[in-house]
Amino acid sequence: MTGQLDVARRPAPAPTAKQHHARKSARDRRRRAAAWRRTGFGLLVTVIVAVALFPFLWILRTSLMSSQEFSEGVTGFLPKDLTFASYGDNLSDQNFLRPLLNSLLICLVSTALSVVCATLAGYALSRLRVRGAGIVLGFVLFAGFFPVLAMVGPLFLVYRNLGLLDSPGGLVLAYMVYTLPIATWLLKSFFDQVPRSLEEAAMVDGASRLQVLWRIVVPVAMPAVFTSAIISFILAWNDFAFAQSFLQTPEQFTAPLAIVNLGQSQFQVFYNRIDAAVVLITLPVVLLVLFAQRRIVSGLTAGAVK
Question: 24 forms bridges with which residues in the sheet?
C-alpha cells in the first residue's frame, strides 16, 4: 500500500526538450492563426464600411466643390479648393427652405398621428379579445411590406375623387398608410411583454381601459413608442414617390422633391448644389439616429429575451 502511494505521489517526469519545442510550436501556430483571423475580419469590415460610405463621401466631396471647378470637370477625389458656397446658396434659396419646412411639418404631423393610432391598434390587438386578431395582424404585416409604387395608383384615384391632390393633408394620410402598419406591429409585439398585473391593479382601483393605456402601459412601453416614432419619421422624411405623385405646385413640394430642381441652368446641372441639399436633408436623420440609437435598439429588441 505504501509503495502504491509513493508511486501516486511521484511527480510527473519533466517534458523533454523535443516535447517542449513541439508545444511551443503549437502555441505559436494558434497565435498566428488567431492573428490572421483578426486581420482578415478587420479587412472585411473595412471593405464593407468603405463600400457603404463611398457614395456618401462622394456626395460630400461634390458638395464642397465650387461651381467653377465643377464646370471644369475636375475628377480628383478631393476638390482643389474646399468651399461651402453651395450650402450657403441652398440655405438662402426659398425654393429649398420652403420645401424643407414643408417636409418637417408634414413628417411631424404624420409621425404623431401614426404613433397615436398604432398605440391604440397595437394595444387592442394585444389585450382585447378581437375576433380574427391573427388575420388582422397578418394583414397589417402584409400592408407594411407592400410595395410603395403599387399603392400610388389606387391612392391617386382616391385623392382625385376626394380633392386631396396637391395638399399637405393628402400627403400626411399617404405617409400614415405607409408607416402605420410597421408601427402597429412593433408596438403590439412590445405590449405582449408588458405584465397584465400592472393593468389589473390599476383597473381594480377604478381606472378605465384608456387611462390604464396612457398612464401605465405607454410609459412602460416608451422605448417601443420612441422607436416606432423614429422609424415612421425616417420613412416619411425620405419619401419621394408619394410626393412626386400627389404634389403639383412648387409651394407644396417637400425637400426630396425640391432637390430635383436645384442647381439647374439652361445648359448645365450643377450637382454640387444638389449634393449639398442631399447632405442638408440627411444630417437631421443622422443626428436623430445617433442621438437615439440606444432607444432604437432597446425598442427593436424589446421582448426578444425574457
Answer: none
